[in-house]
Amino acid sequence: MKVVILQIQQQHWSMARFVFLVLLLAAEGAAAIAPPQIVEAGCNDKCGDTSVPYPFGIGKPSCCINEDFLLECLSTDQYRNKDAENRKERLWYGNYEIKNIYVENATATTSVDMAHYCYNNSNSEHPLEPVASTLNLTGGPFTFSSEENKFTAIGCDTHAFMADGMSSSGCMSMCMEPVNLTDKKDADCSGIGCCRTQIPKGVKYLYISLETFNNFSNVKDFSPCSFAFLADQDWYGFTSIDLADMFSVDTHMSPAVLDWVVGEDTCESFDLNSNKSYYACGENANCNNSTNGPGYICSCKSGYEGNPYLPQGCQGIYVYS
Q1: Residue 196, pLDDT score
Q2: CA 311, CA 301: separation in Å to the nearest integer?
Q3: For the CA atoms of 48, 235, 210, 241, what is the dihedral angle to 10 degrees?
């Protein structure tokens, strides 16, 4: 009888241990698949459809790493006087709408104004109407990405300039007759109807302007305007239709990629200085010097994922076989 009771008790404890292990594994699995924290506790992580990860924040300074990273979340009727029925929340950094923020590669996307220069047949006294574009990110964490953006100009009597306050450069585009290109956006910007060039590293300010060689006199019938803009290199592909009707392209706005950094220090300066009160990288995170001007960015170490700017933002990756 004692042997039977002992066997029953052993079976009971074995079942209890099995249930305990199942519950433990389930709890660990739930923790592993829980959405990672991207903001400080008590802070909003979205503005409309746009995620706002730390070190950025909206609403109050305590939600961001410092006030340079404090963004505004405004409805369209607040910012543009639109009807309340069409209200949509949008994220703003000064006069720039922030479309996306990416922690993984420390970039963001925004929209910037194009420069244009047009011949106006209806104004005989002032037929030329140049409009320049000024892009200014000074005083904040953003810099125009030198790797992801290209400076592009379109037109058949076009000399486009970009000046960053210290130097200027640009490109030229010419054609003496209508350009016969495919309507697909895959034509090369090689200087006939379109030209393209890189921008320098570390650019926070850019003044874009246009000039003509012959006041559109030979091309006004098929290319009455010139355009110049900074844009994500994957956004625009030249087509000859744009020579006559570039006004139809996104209302004179182009998407640009921004790099961002935390502070203007280098990672080496923190290695030499024991005072890391201003160090932005959390636990299990690496420090990486920026390749586009001063400052540094953070990334999770191998085997970890999450937001490296939060104190415990980088969490171990669970792998179950």
Answers
A1: 93
A2: 14
A3: -120
Out of 16-20, 219-223, 263-267, pick the least confident: 16-20
Residue (of 30, 28, 31, 38) closest to 313 by Cα position: 38
* Distance separating alpha carbons of residues 296 and 288, to the nearest angstrom: 6
Q: CB 166: neighbour CB atoms within 10 A?
A: 9
Taking the model in full, what pTM does it have? 0.80
Judge whether 196 and 151 are in contact, CB under 8 Å.
Answer: yes
pLDDT of residue 161 exceeding 80, the answer is yes
Which pLDDT tens digit goes with each residue over 74-109? Answer: 986 555 554 555 568 999 999 999 999 999 999 999
Per-residue b or e along 133-158, where b marks 16 or more CB atoms closer than 10 Å to that residue's CB? bebebeebbbbbbbebbbbbbbbbbb
The one-letter code for the residue type at 189 is C
Query: Residue 123 class from Cβ within 10 Å (0-12 exposed, 13-18 middle, 19+ buried)?
Result: exposed
Neighbours of 272 (CB within 10 A): 7
d(CA 121, CA 131): 17
Mark out the alpha helices in the chain (DSSP H runs).
Answer: 2-33, 76-80, 241-245, 267-272
Three-state secondary structure call for residue 168: strand
Question: Per the structure block, which two tokens stand in for 218?
Answer: 């030979």
pLDDT in tens, 260-277: 999 889 999 887 666 677
CB 92 within 8 A of CB 83: no
Tokens of 153: 């100009």
- Average pLDDT, integer, range 186-208: 88
pLDDT in the model for residue 64 = 94
